[in-house]
Amino acid sequence: MSRTAAEIATQPACWHRAADAALAFDGLPEPGERVAVTGCGTSWFMAIAYAALREAAGQGETDAFASSEFPVGRKYDRVVAITRSGTTTEVLELLGELKGVVPTTALTADPKTPVMDAADSVAVLDWADERSVVQTRFATTALAFLRAGLGDIPGVKSVAEAAVDAELAVTEPLPAAVLAAEQWTFLGRGWTYGLALEAALKMREAAGAWTESYPAMEYRHGPISITGPGRVAWMFGVLPEGLAGDVARVGGELVAREELDPLADLIRAQRLAVALAESRGYDPDRPRNLTRSVILG
Predict the structure, then answer these.
(1) 114, containing H or E segment
(2) CA of 168: how far to CAs of 53, 240, 281, in Å?
(3) Which are the contacts of 210, defined by CB distance < 8 A and separation ≥ 6?
(4) pLDDT tens digits, 15-29
(5) CB neighbour list of residue 47: distance below 8 Å, 6 or more residues apart
(6) pTM for this predicted structure
(7) How far apart are CA 276 and CA 159, in angstroms?
(8) Over the stretch 134-165, which tens digit does the pLDDT of each residue have?
């Protein structure tokens, strides 16, 4: 088993621990605060998902930005940064600009990095850190931590319930048609759009696969043209009305596990990325052209 696959399998336990840790942490946004969430790559996609979840929970206006594109002049009550390594240049530069201007909270996996001084408060999820270059368990654990801090969210399972679903997601066989496909399009609505973005990124990072991602209702405004025999449309969360029929009409393979928590469903996409990488002779632990952290000179 690759190191990446082994880390993927630990996610149910990580999420349970994240739910407990969130209850003991006092640096999360308060209800009613205007909040921005930021990160790079996978962390940005988790920020997108959390922003939508926080608004769905009725806790206040929440925006998400890639750290390099953050509107520094915009007024927020708190900024939350997600950075596994704690060394990402764009995140640290942004936190430096915000120092003394707006309260900042960071989530990181490494307490021995500059982010500890750059942010006003830091949640250290070092027990979810990874040796892998490709992020899996830290990203989902960070989102589980933030999600748990929101309490009850209408129409969304608790983190504990999601972890139970994750126990199935780490072991059940992946569909043969999905493994054999040549192209995958990931779709989401609301908070699950961030998961769709992340699923596509995992497939590209680990396996160099042809993947795309869109808001589900935008899929029929052009992107469906790429779907056909041997190609997959994968929906995170509730399937929009009529979409199944449209995918069938063009000969595509639909994946939609509506009963499964979407974050748990992301685990299945992570596993697919590893399986596909191995089938192509790639090493998922050593992805091409990537490093664990982007530090700009």
Answers:
(1) none
(2) 23, 24, 27
(3) 182, 183, 184
(4) 999 999 999 999 999
(5) 37, 38, 39, 64, 65, 80, 82, 194
(6) 0.95
(7) 29
(8) 889 999 999 999 999 999 999 999 999 999 99
